[in-house]
Predict the structure.
Amino acid sequence: MKYTNRILLSDMDGTLLDSNSRVSSKNKEAIKFFVNNGGKFGIATGRSQLNSVNFLDEVPISAPCILYNGGALYDFTANNFIALNLLPERVLINFLQYCIREVQNVMVQIYSTDMCYFVSKEALADPEVVAGHQPGQFIQIEDIIHEPWIKILFSGSEKDLKLVEKMMFQFDIADKVSRVFTSDIYLEILPLGVSKGSMLKNLKKTIGDDYKIYAVGDYNNDIEMIQLADVGIATENALSCLKDMADHISASNDEDAIADIIYRIMNE
């Protein structure tokens, strides 16, 4: 079949999703065509398995997916984790308690395997951020110390997030975890060495050498994945550094990027 032994992994926000956080009808049709003709489609996102499905109606997911920005490899068909990386919560607790107390303009979210926990004050929460990261609940950080922590998300102004990043050095944790800015308003903490790229390596071990992997993204958290894919693709709306390193540049996320990859780039 036309796309046999090819996997297409797509970032969600800014790539698969348009500026209204929707998958266009052209992208849906192209993905169905790709899968029906032997290809395997999956997502590579910072979102969780429970949150991401809210955006994927009528999108056939047939490949293992990279979630939590590399924190997990997930099988949507079997609804289980293939691989999971966890943060050292006891190393981070004092730092996070300080951030919650002293940098109140920044929201702090901790992701476990089945819940997004909002551990900063509910009264100071941005309703739009809360709505976009469901399922979630407000809770005291001390009450989830025994939960598995996959990633931590800070949301706030660039100035405040830079302050949080600086405090990581003051609390001597900067070399014990990985960190990445995933947008102008998001800073994420991940287990040391974890990224979409590191989980792409895990995926390759899982599926073997028979598959050619295409990966597409638009932001800092996609860099390693694009570098390590067999074919790395940046969207037209991507950061310049991604477009400089990519093998191909697709249409923008508002111009049916995935359809452009399937119908044009994969046939070049």
Observations:
- The mean pLDDT is 96.
- The chain has nine helices and 14 strands.
